[in-house]
Amino acid sequence: MIKKNWLLLVAILTVLVIIVLFVLFVRKKDSKSEKKTDTKVLSNTEVKIDSSKYIDSETGEVAVIVYNPDGKTEYKKDKAENIFNKTPSGLEFKFIKTSSTNKKPSVGDVVYLNMTYKKEGDTQNIFNTADIDENFKMRVSPPSHEGGCIEEAFMLMNEGDSAMFRIDAYDFFTKTQKKVKLPDGIKKGDKLIFNIRLVKIVSGSEFVKQNKEIYNYYLEQENSLIERYLLAFNYPVEKRINGLRILTVKGGNGKKVAKGDKVKMHFTVGYIDGGIFYSTLDNNVPFEFVTGKGEVIEGLDDAVIGMNVGDVKLVIVPFRLAYGDQRYGEIPPFSTLVFEVEIISANAK
């Protein structure tokens, strides 16, 4: 009797185990096919989604909580490729691969890049460094605009990193590249998607040491940059033998500025490759100097002599007529400067 009861108990337990295993199997199977969106907490350095676990099988969307560098969190629900972190300035970024070098570029450094960018939603690239040079390099300039710019993107990365950035197309083309009109197919409000791999960082001074023909290199780069810059304007251009380019925005009918005159003028100055760093218009206080006395950089001094009172002109000053290969305050070495000048008065001393 006891033996029969024991066998019955074993049979019952066996059946229960089979039922439990079956229920667990069915629940696991259902959870894989269940149409829902999970939530994952992400770091402030990269967005990585486990597609098998966090993507909705029907919509392809994920729901994530993103910790941004300013300490704030955001809840985002979208397709994984559309989810970016954001810096306090508004730059949207997503790291694809991070290195352990902890070496970031600064203004004036030279960075070697693999970079493409395209309009968000398009498949065709607008730009690809591989089409220009397999060792494409450029100097890091100060931020060209607020709200997230390409210069900030470079300085956010470490050597060896790969990352994506989403940047306002209008700001990039008009404020960074200084284009007068947007390229075909681009309109205000569009975004650009940049894919960047930062291959190598070389400090500005070290780059000079490593390249014996650096001066000629920068001359070639500058001449090409100036010619591309001029394509954006339809103003009459005067090219001086020393390399100055002077574009007449508005002609004046007043006195012609002579060497030794005391000139009063308003001016705005920035880098030819993006970014304004000073303007007398900010405080509405005109600038005064005596021409021919070395009180301003050679290029500006030379350009102003011969202008008329009332003139409004753009003056492109090559680096050799500005600060050359030396850093001056926040102005990096080899900087080509662009001045917009309005001559208010000129009087003989």
Structure description:
The protein is of the alpha+beta class and 349 residues long. It has 3 domains: 32-86, no CATH class; 88-208, Chitinase A, domain 3; 224-348, Chitinase A, domain 3 (Roll), CATH 3.10.50.40. 23% of the residues lie in helices and 30% in strands. The protein contains 7 helices and 17 strands. The protein has helices at 2-33, 51-54, 150-156, 169-176, 204-210, 214-230, 298-304; strands spanning 39-42, 61-67, 73-79, 85-86, 92-97, 110-119, 127-128, 137-139, 162-168, 191-202, 237-239, 245-250, 261-271, 276-279, 287-290, 312-317, 337-348. The strands form 3 sheets. Strands 4, 5, 6, 7, 8, 9 and 10 form a 7-stranded antiparallel β-sheet that branches. Strands 11, 12, 13, 14, 15, 16 and 17 form a 7-stranded antiparallel β-sheet that branches. The radius of gyration is 30 Å and the shape is elongated. 26% of the residues are buried.
Compact summary:
The N and C termini lie far apart (129 Å). It is built from 7 helices and 17 strands.
- What structural class should be given to the helix and strand makeup? alpha+beta
**Count, helices:** 7
How many individual domains?
Answer: 3
User: Percent of residues in beta strands?
Assistant: 25-35%
Mean pLDDT: 79
What radius of gyration results from the CA coordinates? 30 Å
